[in-house]
Amino acid sequence: MAEKVWMRPPDGGAPREVEATPEILVPLMVQGYSQCEPPEEVTEDVREHS
Amino acid sequence: MSANIREILIGFGKGKQTDIATANPATNVWQLKKLNAALANPKLNTESDAEEFGKGHEFATQVFKTSWDIAGAIEKYLSSDIAAWAMAFGLGKVVKSGSTPNFTYTCTPLNPTADGIELPYFSFIEQIRPGGSPVIDRMAVGCAIEGWTIMVGSGPGRANSKINIEFVSSGKLTEPSGITLPAATVEKLLPSASLTLTINGIDYVTSKNIVSLETSWKNNVRLDGGFFPGSGFQTPGDGASGAIRGRLEFGNRQGALRFVARFENGSTELTKLRQQTAGTAVILLTYDSNNSLELTWHKVSFATAEVGETDGIVTVSVECLPMWDETNGVVSAVARCGVDGICQ
């Protein structure tokens, strides 16, 4: 299975995780997508509040 | 004591600088060998007061430092390592994937709308006998690739697969460099004998017809545009030290692909020239599964095709016109090597 990378669209929208193959990456790069860090996972706060 | 030019050591930023004026740290510099003897000599441009009135004569009485230029070339046998570096810095846009020992750098030209027109910067270091009594020890800061040319020829030697990289600089010079170069990287050569090549629907290696090819990219960097009000000085805060560039932006970029192939009955080059048939051109050079360079011109047609001879064999010399493909752009490179952090 191909490795995946995160790509951010040029409009600053939400990053997409895509397969790191030239067939996928090159069209995105031409459109202006850039590689980015994975978005931070949001963890649910499970503490009890009194 | 005299120095032999073969003592020259070169190193350059493996990763990109954070900005044009901030040199690569020593930890982000690598050393590679090269073939050409030419040095990247700093050139100081000056002007005088000869044209000014009030002196009573037309001769100069004062000289002023105007600006600095540094440019150079790196000629090398083509390896997966230098290919990855040249594609990433030369085209400007890179996506890194993979892990040791197989990093993959997918590279395309910058998209001006999304990425701007400023190329990634690196520092370039030249040293002869660095240390206590150096002959040369200097670093050009804020360099960008002006262009690269890959040449593949017929023959068994390393000289049949080479790359020539030209670079330009902001003009900022650090002397001594303050960099201790690491040991030279052991490169994985991409020999001519590994070539696979398909151009416009023809597999030129399977047919045993390819003789040589040359492909290149040129950024036509806007050197004059690097000097703008506030672009800076060689010595910060010293207005008499000569201006340096504050940006290096590409101009009208150009790609090129030309090749020579044997011409025989059934060869299609002249027909494709007449019909202006367009197709892809895929050039692949391989050391092993972890080290390779695949360069794709996504849409080319033949601009010229001339029949001649090479060593007594009838050949056709073709110049391709790289064109824009709506999906994949003009060119992309997939460079695999074992070196991490290139242009990161």
Description:
The complex is a heterodimer of chains A (50) and B (344). With 50 residues, chain A is α+β, with helices and mostly antiparallel strands. Helices cover 20% and strands 24% of the residues of chain A. Chain A has one helix and three strands. The model of chain A has no long low-confidence stretch (mean pLDDT 89). Chain B has a 16-stranded antiparallel beta sheet that branches. In chain B, strands 3-4 form a two-stranded antiparallel sheet.
Give the tags:
heterodimer; A: 50 residues; alpha+beta; 1 helix; elongated; B: 344 residues; mainly beta; 18 strands; 45% strand
Short description:
The complex is a heterodimer of chains A (about 50) and B (about 350). By secondary structure, chain A is of the alpha+beta class. Helix content of chain A is about 20%, strand content about 25%.
Present the secondary structure layout.
The complex is a heterodimer of chains A (50) and B (344).
Chain A: E1 4-8, E2 16-19, H1 22-31, E3 34-36
Antiparallel strand pairs in A: 1-2, 1-3
Chain B: E1 9-13, E2 29-32, E3 43-48, E4 63-69, E5 71-77, H1 80-91, E6 92-99, E7 102-109, H2 112-115, E8 122-128, E9 136-152, E10 161-174, E11 196-199, E12 202-203, E13 210-218, E14 254-262, H3 269-275, E15 279-288, E16 291-310, E17 313-322, E18 331-337
For the record, give the distance between the C-alpha atoms at the N and C termini of chain A, rounded to a whole number: 47 Å
| Helicity of chain A, as a percent range | 10-25%
Nearest-integer average pLDDT of chain B: 97
Q: How far is the N terminus from the C terminus of chain B?
A: 40 Å
Count of helices of chain B?
Answer: 3
Model regions low in confidence, pLDDT < 50 over at least 5 residues of chain A: none
Main pleated sheet of chain B: 16 strands, antiparallel
Order of helices and strands of chain A: EEHE
